[in-house]
Design goal:
Three copies of one chain form a homotrimer. Chain A has helices spanning 6-30, 35-57, 67-84, 91-115, 120-141, 147-150, 155-170, 176-196. By secondary structure, chain A is mainly α. Chains A and B meet through helix 2, helix 5 and helix 6 of A and helix 1, helix 2, helix 3 and helix 4 of B. Chains A, B, C: Belongs to the UPF0126 family.
Chain lengths: 215, 215, 215
Amino acid sequence: MTAASPVLLALDLLGTFAFALNGALTALRVARLDVVGVVTLGVITALGGGIIRDVLLDVPPVTFNDWRYLAVAAAGGLIAFVSGRGLDRLSAPITVLDAAGLSLFAVTGAGRALELGLGPAQAVVLGAVTGVGGGTLRDVLVRQVPSVLSSGLYAVPALVGATATVVATALDAEGPGTAAGAAALCFLIRMVGVRYDLHAPLPSRAPGPDEEGRD
Amino acid sequence: MTAASPVLLALDLLGTFAFALNGALTALRVARLDVVGVVTLGVITALGGGIIRDVLLDVPPVTFNDWRYLAVAAAGGLIAFVSGRGLDRLSAPITVLDAAGLSLFAVTGAGRALELGLGPAQAVVLGAVTGVGGGTLRDVLVRQVPSVLSSGLYAVPALVGATATVVATALDAEGPGTAAGAAALCFLIRMVGVRYDLHAPLPSRAPGPDEEGRD
Amino acid sequence: MTAASPVLLALDLLGTFAFALNGALTALRVARLDVVGVVTLGVITALGGGIIRDVLLDVPPVTFNDWRYLAVAAAGGLIAFVSGRGLDRLSAPITVLDAAGLSLFAVTGAGRALELGLGPAQAVVLGAVTGVGGGTLRDVLVRQVPSVLSSGLYAVPALVGATATVVATALDAEGPGTAAGAAALCFLIRMVGVRYDLHAPLPSRAPGPDEEGRD
């Protein structure tokens, strides 16, 4: 396994922490789970994107080679369990933490793909997959339609953040500042999208779900 | 990675295109998604079967080594988004495209497994998994019971198509015509099953879902 | 691939059989599926945990290198299809078989991780993931909230069984008796938890699902 650069590692652990808090708070909101269930959903949300990324890269998932990911994810889940039950409304922190994880993972996923020698288009796609992967597993497990399908501007900011990372690397301008900037750009687009309920073009009319069976 | 034969590649890209159209039309029918959500579901449906196949083979998913798959999948999703909203009824094309993808992937999945040196039984299973994999991911993401569980004659034609491929290869009769024939056989069985609502034997009586919790 | 020890192999096949029965009976209870759907859910439940384990270990999934797993899983599914439709109530056997599979896979998953050279903490996590993995796929496919999230004491006994395995190996006390003991310990905790409806600490109050959208 290629050793990740310190910048990627730091941003990756930060994203892991944000998604662990997010997943655990989602568990608190969606169902009355015990502490193990809450922490489990936090850990899956936190590690899911990176695991999908590494499976697609066909390298050993970094989670099982670097204990820090698991420790950060479990700590985030526990902290959310303890603090979350005191919060009156969980929607706002859940949304912000999800956007933070999305942004950080889009950047680190693209960066890791480049480190492993993938081409620019593949790095962009893999960055976006890393960003949306953990949240998609989370949504499937709690039986919600995944944000990446239902939610305005979710994949788009991830693609933008990953593209910014790839372009910066092509220009030899990669570094902590660039990575943080790319993540901030993704975060901003996502939060503006949430605030103003923006979305990509819709179909001109929604065909009603017709009642015939699918098969 | 073993280079795929030109025949396998062509059929594989055709199956990718069929499933991309199918997934995107499903997205249009099931929910009012924006263009990104529609294309995303198309791409996941199109690439899902091959990714699961390559993960089970423990080789790098071909999707990320060959940009043509991603391009074909994205193009299919976009075409379906543009054309699908003009369609009055989506059920028929969705069913036909799903059967086409199922058939093509059952054949190419079995062929790829044989190319990589797996035994005949494993190649049959892997062909069927490739055929049903993308549609299963699609159904989980839009919260439907997967076709492979609920739908009459879905896994069976995939197993038949994969078996025909394995037998033809054992008889040294593989080639474009044989592959197309095996896919056509699978497609025919599936469509006959849909038309006449055929299914494998049912339990003699359906035990009602009893109300006790599962645990 | 490292050859598994005979003890691990025997326990692994036993767990495969238990989960195949469990998954197929779940299919009978949850929906009126035909024989192919019932066997398919049995096979996925039986093989899912080991496949997730091997994907996380980045080794070829043993299922596709050792036909015995597939044969045992398919046989279990068929037996459950034939015998299950005569059963009046399926809840009790489903619960017991699930606990048996959970226990056996937690032990064999941890053992396999140790054989492949992973550290103790990772072996514990991987054992638990192996134990809960197949049932989680099963629950997602039939659209139930996964037991690992919803159910009292489900991950906890798996973690205990995996930890016992790791400790025994560290003390050079591994062997058939120890492995069976660790599995029995896990099974006992799980069944006591089911019987008395035990669970880990809950949040002090359940925040109602607030009505704002997630994004």
